[in-house]
Design a protein that fits this description.
603 residues, 24 helices, ABC transporter transmembrane region fold, four-stranded antiparallel beta sheet, Rossmann fold, alpha/beta, six-stranded mixed beta sheet, 2 domains, 10 strands, 61% helix, binds adenosine-5'-triphosphate
Length: 603
């Protein structure tokens, strides 16, 4: 079979809806995000109150110690009050520390939960779509989108809350400046438009470089996974060094984008670093003038200088803004998976005890602008075995995918026992249609669990009889822990793995079984044994077998001969064998010494 084509690394599988997905994540963790915001706000409030309390304590101390003589008991009373205010200061500082600790804890939990939510959405989108959609992106790219990108996107709710909260203290500080002296606040606000321009440029440049950085990161992962997958080819070709260089080729670009992000950040920090001290100095200068004019006290000036410093904390928002921008860019990449078109299911059911009659009517499949199947009309009576043959690339696997609804045709309908596949409930469809593939993958903690997994878990007895039918039972029992052996610990040949794939399909056999090149690694004797056991021991139903071997076609009740996405002929093998072009499917013309090669049918 052909493996579905993949787009360029980093290409998007669907329209990005990163913003929508982030909104969903924020909504999902609204309670925890609100708690983070409350902690931050309370901490900012406490931090805001500290300068006022400190200024008040200083004024009281100056009043009482300065011997102003305004009252005879002023010294004791004044220093007592000052002590009170100092205690308030201490309590506020402790509150700030505790609230910050709580905020850090809640932030961690919130980010972890929203990451899990985003990852779940991405994964659900990927697994809910037709497999060919996911296959457009390389595995490394998919893994990056569901791991690193989802993690970065998951920090968005906390970053947003922290950004909002980080503005509270500066906003409160500006209000406090207004209350202390109008002109100190004006002095600070005069520089804000410039600061906004700096932040805007920062957000724009960060967004661009973060998106590029994340794309290159995924490209690196894709190359790595590709090479790991093809480790034997690399070893056989002796191209390890070349492959290492190829994997690392995007590294300079990663460094460029990483440096660019730091430069953008550094530029914003440097500009803020010049602007904000200028503003605080301005506030102090204006405050000094106000003190000299007698409009404010020394304590007020101290408070104003602290508030100016707090207001300058608005510059710290740049870091949070940067992380929010990176989260958005990462969310866009995960969202592309969540937005894949789902393979929708109906609620329909199949007629009881139907024979498994399969009908394809006017089926047309177009992928990436290429017509893979066209005008396919096929009626397969229930209970027969059908071999789908044709040259490589004729569309056999595509037909097998459409027949069991791994993908939907662009035109036409596929019916099982008269019911359109698209109208069936997912459980019903997957119970009644089984698949085995050329390269099966075993999911499960043990081989037994991997074989039992399906729309309905198969019993241990059923798994064993299916494994016997697939000629897998004997070698599984020879494994150190038999059926309890974890798949990763079982050294399996290609043929053994295929037999396990067949066993899994047999254990869940319904009324239609589709074997897509699922016996290509089996020797002909084992293949024959499996076919016999399938007919004898497994629920009789319709079998659609994508076959390259002449013997498989010869033993089938019916052969569907595909050519360039169209059905060239349907009929029993002996009839088709009379056609030279049909014989040429199995070997180039002239290579058949016996044009009417005897079939193994009925042996
Ligand atoms: N998602 C896709 N996008 C574009 N072209 C595709 C896609 N999937 C398959 N093709 C192409 O469609 C053609 C039919 O593929 P298919 O896998 O059905 O052929 P096949 O007959 O099973 O081939 P083989 O015997 O080599 O396995 C091939 O040329 C293949 O490259």
């Amino acid at each position: 079979m052909k493996f579905p084509r993949r787009g360029a690394p980093g290409s998007r599988a669907a329209a990005p809806t990163g913003h929508g997905l982030l909104r969903g994540a924020v909504r999902h963790s609204a309670g925890r995000t609100a708690a983070v915001l409350c902690c931050s706000a309370a901490s900012a409030g406490a931090a805001l109150a500290v300068p006022a309390a400190l200024g008040r304590a200083l004024d009281l101390l100056l009043d009482s110690g300065g011997g102003s003589g305004s009252s005879g008991s002023g010294f004791d009373g004044g220093s007592g009050s000052a002590r009170c205010w100092l205690l308030v200061c201490g309590a506020l500082i402790v509150a700030v520390v505790l609230l910050d600790a709580l905020e850090a804890l809640l932030s961690g939990v919130t980010s972890a939960r929203s990451t899990a939510w985003l990852r779940g959405r991405g994964l659900a989108g990927l697994l809910g779509a037709a497999p060919e959609h996911g296959a457009r992106l390389p595995p490394g790219e998919l893994a990056t989108r569901l791991s690193a990108n989802a993690t970065e996107a998951g920090t968005a709710p906390v970053s947003a809350a922290a950004l909002a909260a980080s503005l509270l203290a500066p906003a409160g500080a500006v209000i406090a400046l207004f209350l202390i002296d109008f002109w100190t606040a004006v002095a600070f606000l005069a520089g804000i438009p410039v600061l906004l321009l700096v932040l805007r440029a920062f957000a724009r440049d960060t967004s661009d470089s973060a998106a590029r950085y994340q794309r290159v990161q995924a490209d690196l992962a894709s190359r790595l996974v590709e090479v790991l997958d093809g480790a034997r080819t690399v070893a056989a070709a002796g191209t390890a060094e070349r492959e290492r260089d190829r994997i690392l080729a995007p590294l300079p670009e990663l460094a460029v984008q990483g440096r660019r992000m730091w430069r953008v950040h550094g530029r914003a920090v440097a500009r803020g670093g010049v602007l904000l001290p200028l503003l605080t100095t301005g506030v102090l200068a204006v405050g000094g003038v106000a003190l000299a004019a007698g409009r404010i006290s020394v304590g007020d000036l101290l408070a104003a200088s602290r508030y100016a410093a707090l207001a300058a904390g608005v510059g710290a928002g740049a870091g949070l803004l940067g992380s929010l921008v990176r989260s958005r860019s990462a969310a866009r990449r995960t969202a592309a998976l969540a937005a894949l078109p789902p393979l929708a299911y109906g609620t329909g059911r199949l007629p009881e005890a139907g024979p498994g009659a399969l009908d394809l009517r006017g089926v047309r499949v177009v992928r990436d602008g290429r017509t893979l199947l066209d005008g396919v009309d096929l009626s397969v009576p229930g209970g027969v075995s059908v071999a789908v043959v044709g040259r490589s690339g004729a569309g056999k696997s595509t037909l097998a995918a459409v027949a069991g609804r791994l993908t939907d045709p662009d035109e036409g309908r596929v019916l099982l026992d008269g019911v359109p596949l698209a109208s069936l409930a997912r459980g019903e469809l997957r119970r009644e249609v089984g698949y085995a593939f050329e390269r099966p993958v075993l999911f499960g903690d043990t081989i037994g669990a991997a074989l039992a997994a399906g729309a309905e878990p198969a019993s241990a007895a059923r798994v064993r009889s299916a494994a016997r039918a697939a000629s897998a039972d004997a070698f599984v029992r020879l494994l150190p822990r038999g059926y309890d052996t974890p798949p990763a610990e079982a050294p399996l040949s290609g043929g053994e793995l295929q037999r396990l794939g067949l066993a899994r399909a047999f254990a869940h056999a319904g009324r239609l079984l589709i074997l897509d090149d699922a016996t290509s690694s089996l020797d002909t004797v084992t293949e024959r044994q499996v076919e016999r056991a399938l007919a004898r021991d497994i629920t009789p139903g319709t079998r659609l077998v994508v076959a390259h071997r002449l013997s498989s076609a010869a033993r089938a009740d019916l052969v569907v001969w595909l050519e360039e996405g169209r059905i060239r002929a349907v009929g029993p093998h002996p009839e088709l064998w009379r056609v030279p072009a049909y014989r040429a499917v199995f070997a180039p013309p002239g290579e058949h010494s016996e044009p009417n090669e005897p079939t193994e049918k009925g042996r």
